Sequence to fold (846 residues):
Amino acid sequence: MSSLRLWLTDPNPTSRRQARLGQLWLAWLRIRRNSLAMAGLVIVALLVLVAVFAPLLAPHDPLVQDLGRRLLPPGTPGNLLGTDDFGRDILSRIIYGSRITLYIIGLVAVTAPVLGLLIGTVAGYFGGWVDAVLMRLTDIFLAFPRLILALALVAVLGPGIENAVLAIALTAWPPYARIARAETLTVRNSDYIAAVRLQGAGAVRIIAGHIVPMCLSSVIIRVTLDMAGVILIAAGLGFLGLGVQPPMPEWGLMISSGRKFLFEQWWVATMPGLAIFIVSLGFNLLGDGLRDVLDPRSSQSGSAPK
Amino acid sequence: MSLIEIDNLSVTFRAKGREVQAVQGVSLTVGEKESFGLVGESGSGKSTILRAICGLAPVSGGTIRIGGKVIPSPRGRDFSRRVQMVFQDPYASLHPRHTIDRTLSEPLAIHGIGNSDARVMQVLEDVGLPTSFRFRYPHQLSGGQRQRVAIARALMLNPQILLLDEPTSALDASVQAEVLNLLNRLRAEHGLTFLMVSHDLAVIDHMCDRVLVMQHGRAVEELSREALAAAQMKTAYARSLFDASADRLLGPTPEPVK
Amino acid sequence: MTLLDVQNLRVTFDTETGPVQAVRGVSFSLGRERLGIVGESGSGKTMTGRAVLRLIRPPGRIEADRMVFDGQDLMKASDREMRALRGQRIGMVMQDPKYSLNPVMSVGQQLTEGLRLRDRIGRAAAHAKAVAALEAVQIRDPERVMAAYPHELSGGMGQRVMIAMMLIPEPDLLIADEPTSALDVTVQAEVLSILDGLVRDRGMGLIFISHDLRLVSRFCDRVLVMYKGRIVEEVQAGNLLAARHPYTQGLLNCLPRIGGPRAPLPGLDRSGAWAQDNGGTR
Ligand SMILES: Nc1ncnc2c1ncn2[C@@H]1O[C@H](COP(=O)(O)OP(=O)(O)OP(=O)(O)O)[C@@H](O)[C@H]1O
Ligand SMILES: Nc1ncnc2c1ncn2[C@@H]1O[C@H](COP(=O)(O)OP(=O)(O)OP(=O)(O)O)[C@@H](O)[C@H]1O
Ligand SMILES: [Mg+2]
Ligand SMILES: [Mg+2]
Fold:
């Protein structure tokens, strides 16, 4: 163990692999020093674990109804968080619901930022009419409130989880494009870009290998900060009946069905609400912490903050 | 025959409707294995000439020939293998998120040259950096070390011509000496041709055989090394440059001017 | 009359691989004069300058027995008080000017921003003041430069813009970190005469960080020579070229000279006792 650590922290690595692993190890050390980010990381890791081991963790089947045990309050033996109006165990539904949440987050996280990065860096790098066209397109998407746009898209595409993801992804990319373009503008005239151009690199190589890394940290941070919003929009679509369809245990859908009893049986809507709150908080904290970790200079350089 | 022939070169930048004539009708020739210096006022277009050769500045008139042939535009891969540049500012010319290893192996990857491991180690040795620096990031290096990385990068493709834009102005005296010695050694070993910008006449004198003095985007006067050392300049501007460099002359240290 | 008094200043970086001491116990005091700091790359010149403004980012730490600017204890000042000092009463010209300018804001915007926000000066007046400052640093075409973005400037112009920016608020103390390294000798002389005028006429204090020993010996009143975070020698500037310390001597010997031989320049010999880790006379 300690020899592994020595190998990782060796200031003079001897191979590319060792250097890369050493960087990861340093990033891990940095994130570990930041207690809030660690809290966020723990929450997100818990979400993943719960989703993976849902069948083992859930005490009941999330879909089986038991009308004899409707609307039991939290703390009832066998139903720790109570039951809903069909007598389904809320805890089990939240546990299974984490799978859906994770699925949505995962899909959005691999589509929207990639699209945004592509559009933003291309617009920023080439400038001129390419920039004008792409940025007007971005503005059009930005001009609509996200939820409304997602609603309109789902209304066209038809309800369902894939369509909900598609709608969210299509409404989520414009801010990433904006960020990526802004970062691209600050680096495209720099000498290090001129230097690779002089070495004969083409536009694809320059954008992918030299410009994207400069945009990546701000985009990743923005993505983690946005994840809370994505969960809420997915929940909102579920709530309106346009996302995941009942009887799937999606958190937003659960809130929507609990709304009818909000005053007498508060727990039906509150428990999934709490789950959304905690997971959103986790992603937010993680995003804040990543800001410090992703910049290799942040912990070592002495250059002044602007 | 001259290796680099620049004939009546003009560069005009257009920004927001304004025209900036950065270089106006400058001609110069550099022979093979020669070292040619550019000095002059700040903002007089020295860097712009080097950038124009590399296709990084908008040429509005004149021709640039290398080895007797007009260089194609866009420059293309053959050009990159022949001509490389070291930029003015070592703090801005290395990618902050790439390790030294990545920066140095990038040109090899672009040109599909293999064996990058060994070549990176070799070039680090050439410029006198310990190979243990290979996986550092630029911010972990001092200014002089960064400049040596920039020189190493320029050497990766074994070019024939090196364009050097103030290679030592950001460096302290001891590192400047190291870098100048390194450049001279590399020129001798690899038979390189230098086109070098500096504002320190002592550096130019140490490095170059001929020097062109520039002001306001125009060439003012061309001097040989001997003429420079003997203060045989004809124009007032070149003389004022020389006079202001009095403390860089060989001989008894001058009295401090107060 | 002391403007700045620094006793036993230390700057330490707590990196993952252990603490790195960039400045190890530097003491000096500055009146309304020109103090030069010279030394090789990495000797802690920049960090000393930054520490005075408390501009060291974590994991860097600043410690000092005493650091007082014009009666105000800089070690105890709140972040707010420091912000009020920076730029206004203490200016700093950064070493890498183009890096320190905002690449997506025009030079004019950056020059007038402070004037308009802090001093509440009208647009036209701020513009006029900025143009005057650019003219003072020998920029030929100030109107064009005002509209230009940093990448459209030459290296030396970026440096002069940075100097102009720092001089506009008329600070009492200016820390200039390699302010003229990219300037040719004639423009350099002009810029130095502006700084000189400010010290003489307005009584500004100037810390002039540079690696150009000949320049410092000509321009400053007093010079501190730094090596590995310590001050190894303090001399009257006029005597610098005759300095006795082997390190200072070594630095001087590395310099090429007009009409000098083409032989390889001598390097710095670090085998002497002064170069060992606990070397230094202070
Ligand atoms: N991209 C650009 N757009 C507009 N003007 C530019 C651009 N690049 C350079 N210039 C202008 O061209 C002129 C010459 O600049 P250049 O960088 O060649 O000067 P230089 O001789 O290298 O000066 P220095 O010694 O200060 O580096 C300057 O007036 C500068 O403002
Ligand atoms: N973030 C950091 N982490 C660790 N060490 C650092 C950090 N920043 C600076 N240092 C170290 O502090 C020392 C002093 O650096 P400083 O920038 O003050 O040097 P300098 O005298 O200004 O050199 P130069 O002439 O090259 O500008 C250097 O040895 C550097 O390695
Ligand atoms: Mg230049
Ligand atoms: Mg410095």
Summary: The domain at 4-98+161-249 of chain B is CATH 3.40.50.300 (Rossmann fold).
